């Protein structure tokens, strides 16, 4: 029996050597490596500014600060997302307003956004779930109509294109994640991308205590001892140790993507004729980074539920996960906003059925074949 964890980072000698160099250099916090990572990331995405921070959650927080979010404002987000997308809104005592998803792509349902907009709405955070771009034409159109800012939650979407343009160049601000098992990793880390000079300046300052000059410039011969605190900021800067990992990983981003794409293709070919499984639907307006491969179990045709399916996968040595438990089903959201399962019927329905199966560049194609064999075996054994 194989042992295939749900996900693993792909770390090799290059990353280890890059970190060793930084450790030996004597400068281990934010400095020249961080600047280099920002420049290389900006070039990769094709955006004007890239600001490295210590998580995507920090990136989203800084983005909402930059657009001037205030207490009691509202921000539209999908219910199918990770905790961060909603929690950052609450940092401002503002309200995350949830929107249901499409049944086939699990992306925010753009037809249900406008009905949630009112005078207090300030922004939309489309989440490019699993690595597939949301329908950005519709989102940009509605944001222009009501003068809203668009902040991409691009935690999964590296690299992802929408009509030939990279995610990171479309909304007002985009936020990427380099968490341990994201498309590229720095352990923990994030990047904010924007074309807007004022947003970039504000984000840079707020990411390091609201100080007008960063530490690296202050303490090297380029800078001076003088600095000014111009706002009450945060401590969200990326370190050079982290950035060294990021630079090495970024070089492999396309290679990682190709590997995930091939695994996704194998899964799709194997599962497309199996009626008990719905495979992910990819819209033709863009590309899919395949950060996640989320199948939906057709429970009506099976004798087992999703938990039993995941348990059987585990018994066969395969780790699975669920992305995501929709926000409206969590105690905090139920308690605070009185959300009910029926308020988001599609997300509540798919939530019972979704399973994320392993897809990452460290997997071999043999591993992917094994996953396919086991999925099919479990389905066959549990057909109604
Ligand atoms: C959709 C989404 N947004 C934001 C985040 C937060 O990323 P980070 O862990 O880098 O803060 C995640 C992480 O899992 C995510 O999946």
Overview of this structure, please?
Helix 3 (56-66) packs parallel to helix 4. The chain has 2 domains: 13-251, Aspartate Aminotransferase, domain 2, CATH 3.40.640; 253-381, Aspartate Aminotransferase, domain 1 (Alpha-Beta Complex), CATH 3.90.1150.10. It has 13 helices and 12 strands. It has helices at 13-25, 32-45, 56-66, 83-90, 136-145, 197-206, 215-219, 240-251, 253-271, 306-315, 331-337, 345-351, 365-381; strands spanning 49-53, 74-78, 95-99, 121-124, 149-153, 161-162, 165-166, 173-177, 190-194, 277-278, 293-297, 354-357. The two termini are 27 Å apart. It has a 7-stranded mixed β-sheet with strand order 1-9-8-5-4-2-3, sandwiched between helices. It has a 3-stranded antiparallel β-sheet with strand order 10-11-12, with no helix packed on it. It is of the alpha/beta class and 384 residues long. The radius of gyration is 21 Å and the shape is globular. The model has no long low-confidence stretch (mean pLDDT 96). The chain binds pyridoxal-5'-phosphate (PLP). Pyridoxal-5'-phosphate (PLP) binds at residues 55-57, 81-82, 84-85, 127, 153, 155-156, 177, 179, 190.
């Amino acid at each position: 029996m194989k042992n295939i964890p749900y996900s693993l980072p792909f770390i090799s000698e290059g990353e280890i050597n890059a970190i060793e160099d930084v450790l030996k250099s004597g400068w281990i916090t934010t400095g020249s490596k961080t600047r280099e990572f920002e420049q290389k990331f900006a070039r990769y995405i094709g955006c004007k500014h890239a600001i490295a921070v210590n998580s995507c959650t920090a990136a989203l927080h800084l983005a909402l600060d930059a657009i001037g979010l205030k207490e009691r404002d509202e921000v539209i987000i999908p219910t199918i997302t990770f905790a961060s997308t909603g929690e950052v809104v609450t940092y401002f005592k503002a309200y995350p307003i949830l929107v249901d998803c499409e049944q086939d792509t699990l992306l925010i349902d753009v037809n249900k956004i406008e009905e949630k907009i009112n005078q207090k709405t300030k922004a939309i955070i489309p989440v490019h779930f699993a690595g597939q771009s949301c329908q950005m034409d519709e989102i940009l159109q509605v944001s222009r109509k009501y003068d809203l800012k668009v902040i991409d939650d691009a935690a999964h979407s590296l690299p992802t294109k929408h009509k030939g343009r990279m995610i990171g160049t479309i909304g007002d601000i985009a936020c990427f994640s380099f968490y341990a098992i994201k498309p590229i990793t720095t352990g923990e880390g994030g990047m904010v991308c924007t074309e807007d000079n004022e947003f970039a300046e504000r984000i840079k300052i707020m990411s390091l205590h609201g100080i007008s000059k960063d530490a690296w410039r202050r303490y090297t011969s380029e800078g001076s001892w003088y600095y000014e605190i111009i706002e009450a900021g945060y401590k969200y800067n990326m370190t050079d140790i982290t950035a060294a990992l990021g630079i090495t990983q970024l070089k492999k981003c396309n290679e990682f993507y190709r590997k995930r794409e091939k695994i996704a293709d194998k899964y799709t070919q194997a599962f497309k004729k199996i009626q008990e499984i719905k495979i992910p639907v990819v819209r033709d307006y863009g590309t899919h980074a395949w950060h996640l491969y989320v199948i939906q179990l057709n429970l009506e045709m099976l004798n087992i539920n999703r938990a039993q399916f995941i348990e059987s996968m585990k018994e066969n040595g395969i780790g699975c996960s669920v992305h995501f438990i929709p926000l409206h089903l969590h105690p905090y959201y139920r308690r605070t906003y009185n959300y009910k399962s029926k308020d988001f019927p599609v997300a509540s329905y798919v939530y019972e059925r979704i399973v994320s199966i392993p897809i990452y560049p460290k997997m071999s194609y043999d591993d992917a074949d094994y996953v396919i064999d086991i999925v099919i075996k479990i389905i066959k054994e549990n057909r109604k």
